[in-house]
Structures are given as C-alpha cells and as structure tokens.
Amino acid sequence: MTIGTGRRFPDGFLWGSATASYQIEGAAKEGGRGPSIWDTFSHTPGKTLNGDTGDVADDHYHRWQEDLGHIADLGLGAYRFSTAWPRVQPGGSGPVNREGLDFYSRLVDGLLDRGVKPVLTLYHWDLPQDLEDAGGWANRDTAYRFAEYAELMARELGDRVDTWTTLNEPWCSAYLGYASGAHAPGRADGAAALAAVHHLNLAHGLGVQAIRSVLPSARASITLNLHVIRPVDPSSEADLDAVRRVDALANRAFTGPLLSGAYPADLFDDTAHVTDWSFVRAGDEEIAHQPIDVLGVNYYSTALARRWDGARPRSEDDGHDDALGSPWVGADDVEFVRPEGPYTAMGWNIDPTGMTELLLRIAREYPDQPMMITENGAAFADTVSPDGAVHDPLRIDYIARHLEAVGQAIDQGADVRGYFAWSLLDNFEWSYGYDRRFGLIRVDYDTLVRTWKDSAHWYQGVVARNALPEG
Ligand code: GBH
Predict the structure, then answer these.
(1) Is 60 exceeded by the pLDDT of residue 439?
(2) Which residue of 234, 296, 330, 390 has the lowest C-beta tally within 10 Å?
(3) Would you say 429 is a known binding-site residue?
(4) How far is the CA of 325 from the centre of ligand 1 (A)?
(5) Which of 132, 151, 335, 375 does the annotation list as catalytic?
(6) ipTM of the complex in this document
(7) Is the pLDDT of residue 1 over 60?
(8) Is 169 a catalytic residue?
(9) Binning pLDDT at 50, 70 and 90, where does residue 3 land?
(10) Quick one: 14-465 is in which CATH superfamily?
(11) Catalytically annotated residue among 156, 169, 285, 335
(12) What residue spans define the domains of the chain?
C-alpha cells in the first residue's frame, strides 16, 4: 500500500520531527514551573476526553536524554520542540526561573552534541495562567510580555538555536481558545478572538524584533496552520463567497499583516458586526511585518465550505457545536461539509493534493519566502502485536503520500527547505487527551516505555537516503 516513488529531495533538505512542551513534558509542578492555561483547562471537568491532563504526559522532563537518543538514532537533522513559558517565567513576566532555563539549555546542548539542529518554538499554547487572568491574548499587554520572554530566551540560548519560531498556529490560539472554546482558555467570545488574532500577530512582530535586538543574525520564523478550503459547488457564487470569507479569517488574517504588512479589507468588512478592530493601532501592522527567514507550514487535511441557507439543518461535520460555539467568528452563514475520505482517527480527511496546493499558493503569493513543513502526520488506532511491534502501515502511507506531494510542489517552484513529522512521540493530543496517537514512537502510558513503530523505522530510511523508497 505504501507508495514508493523513489523521489529524491533537494541536497541539504532538513529532516526532522516535532513535539510541543505541554504535550510531552509532564512534571507540571516540578522545577519551579508555574501554571499555564492548559493546566487549568485540562483540570476543568468535561474539557478533555477522559479528563486527561498533561501532568505526566510522556514524562519527557525526566526522560529527555532517552528521547535525544531516539532523535539521534532516527538520524534526524533537526528537532522541533517548544519551550514552556511558565517554566521560564512562572508568572508570565518578571522573575526568571533558572531551573526552567537550565532544562532547555541542557536540551539544546544535547541536540548539538548529537549533530541535531534545535528548531525552537517559543509559544505552543501554554500561556502562563497569570497572563490569562489579566485578559490573555485578548489583552494587548500580553504581546509585550511575550516580547520580553522572547528576548530573555534569545539571551540565554543565543546562537545555539538554529531557528527561532515565535508562535505555533495562532489560528488555534485565537479561535479555538477564545471563540469555540475547544482549547484553553475555553472562552466563547468572537470579539475577544479577533482581538487575540491581532495581539498574536503583534506578539510575533515584537518577538522577532526582540530576538534580533540580541541576535542580529537570528533565523526567525512563525508556524501557521493555513487552511485549504474548497467550495462545495465551484460554480456557485454563494459558495465561492463563503470560501472567501473563511479564507480571510483563517489565512489572510495572518498572512496579511505578517507577510504583506496589512490586514485584508474584506476581513474588517465581514466582521464589522462583531468588532470595529479599534485594537489595531497605527504602526501595528508594520511591527507584525518582520522579514522572516522561513515560514513554518503545518498541514493535515482540507476543508469544504458553502453558504448555509439557514433553512436546511447544518451538516453534521460542520464543527458548529452549539454547546461550544464556532471558531468561525462572524461567519455563521458558512457551513462546513465533510470532504471525501479516507479519514484518520481524528476524523480528518486524507488529501495530499491539499499540501501541494497550499505550498504553491504561498509560493505564488510570496515568491521569495522560503518554507518548511513544521508539522504533518496522522493519528491512527495503533495496536501492539504479540511480538511487541507496532505495525502502522496507514501512517507510513500518509507520510509517504504527503512527502510526494511536497516534492511535487518543489518541482513546480515552491521553496521548501525541510519536513518535520508530527510527532516524535505519542503525546497529549489537547482536548482528545491520550486517546489519539500521532507518534512515530509509541508511548505506553502505564510504563512510559517508548517503542519504535514501523513508521519510525521507515522514516529513518527516508532520512538516511534523502528520498522515498522505490517500488
Ligand atoms: C497541530 O494542530 C498542533 O500544532 C499540534 O500540537 C497537534 O498535536 C497536532 O496538530 C495534531 O492535532 O474545522 O477547521 O477546526 C492541528 C490544527 C486545527 C488541524 C483544526 C485540524 C480541524 C479543522 N488543527 N483543524 S477545523
């Protein structure tokens, strides 16, 4: 079933795998770490599947040396991880927790000792709870606190870090955190979510400025989960307009300020009934618009949208949960429809053509912007064989097809510098807890023992050959 096109990747193509602090570290109350919004959220009954929390997770905080061994054995050229802001500044501002900084300093050194490039993300959703209590990302001040945190990390880890990524998927932080409430802090307030979008964009710009004030030659980046949204009926004006509107919310609300220096006018018009955007002050868009060395692209699946006529019931796959609210602020008349399968265990459709389409769109709109796939991968219902192996041909097939799709985009001119498989390890999959497994390496949550799945062995071969297998 695995496609083996034998495709080779460009010389110097960076092969890696990715994780995030709250999803793997555990040790939530150790080493001087302060509470984050995900501690609060996951400990609130009903917010995560089975009430799972990141208290222990993969216990990476204690097992990091073993995990470095797996990274080295896989032959990875780079490892993408995130630092937990509340480990470094327990209250989100002010005093620094030396123990937290030392943990990341040892991790970075351990990677360099093994010849692995550290690709560091400063914020992968674990906001210090004190900052949320002061308004979180809906509060402009959080962007300035983020810049201080970015600067102190740059001072500490300096030029040992290969790439400094400010934020992971601000779409999720803003819309899942503040509009649908599916993620921490679990608020449901469309105006707050749009303010969060802006303050995240501002935080990125201020963060890049702060990093470069310390390290003028730092390689800076941001990772976005840009959406590939297609119309249910491409000949319907109404459906095309629905796609335009959700494209503004999901994509251009970020690429506009970050890569072009301005929000798109239609975003303001479409959401005028929700907010007047007065939180965007003169000069903010220029701050957000810092040149970045590489754009991180996370890709998993595609979406299908149409205009909802208000009469027929919404499609079951709309994701519009009245208990939760919708992440699509101000677009209540847009309806999402389940795309054709096959699907992963997340219920997301598998469509590698979306990967090629997305990369070519970015290449067309921002021709000089190098890119890197900072996440791609899949959850499936893995089982352990009697011999202890984990045969996961569906994951191998998923990654192979998406790598082939990346290669096709490169052939057509997209400047893609690397690929990071999500994820190195099974881990805390946010509101789905430990129920959904994305790892190349299985984690037994009773013993915390790590076991390479077939996909890990397969990926090791791809990395070694810089090519997909033949046949
Ligand atoms: C990433 O987010 C995260 O960075 C990572 O931490 C996580 O573990 C991994 O992916 C796997 O989930 O109806 O538009 O809401 C994934 C972002 C956002 C992708 C929501 C799928 C669902 C369609 N996801 N999206 S939508």
Answers:
(1) yes
(2) 234
(3) yes
(4) 17
(5) 375
(6) 0.90
(7) no
(8) yes
(9) confident
(10) Glycosidases (3.20.20.80)
(11) 169
(12) 14-465
CA of 192 to the centre of ligand 1 (A): 21
What integer pLDDT is reported at residue 315 of this predicted model? Answer: 83
User: Looking at residue 433, what is its pLDDT?
Assistant: 98
Q: Answer left, alpha or beta for residue 265, where phi above 0 means left and psi between -120 and 50 means alpha.
A: alpha
User: Is 156 designated active site?
Assistant: no
pLDDT at residue 159, as a whole number: 86
Q: Which residues contact 418 (CB under 8 A, 6 or more apart)?
A: 13, 14, 15, 16, 77, 78, 372, 373
Nearest alpha carbon to residue 334 among 302, 300, 358, 310? 310
CA distance 380 to 419: 20
Q: Which residues line ligand 1 (CB under 6 A)?
A: 20, 23, 168-169, 172, 225, 298, 300, 303, 319, 327, 348, 375, 422, 429, 438
pTM exceeds 0.95, yes or no: yes
C-alpha of residue 280 to centroid of ligand 1, in Å: 27
Closest residue to atom 19 of ligand 1, CA basis: 300
Question: What is the Cα–Cα distance from 135 to 279, expressed in whole angstroms?
Answer: 14
237-270 pLDDT, tens digit per residue, is 999 999 999 999 999 999 999 999 999 999 999 9
Pairwise CA distance, residues 24 & 399, whole Å? 22
Alpha carbon distance 236, 395 (integer Å): 36
Burial of 319 (0-12, 13-18, 19+ CB in 10 A): middle
Which of 375, 398, 427 for a ligand 1 pocket mutation test, highest count of atoms within 8 Å of Cβ?
375
Say if CB 360 and CB 409 are below 8 A apart: yes
Looking at the CA of residue 319, tell me the nearest atom of ligand 1.
Answer: 13
Query: CA–CA separation, 372 vs 278, rounded Å?
Result: 34
pLDDT of the residue at 321: 66
pLDDT digits (tens, 9 = 90+) for 265-295: 999 999 999 999 999 999 999 999 999 999 9
Q: What is the spatial order of strands in the sheet that 228-231 belongs to?
A: 228-231, 302-307, 334-337
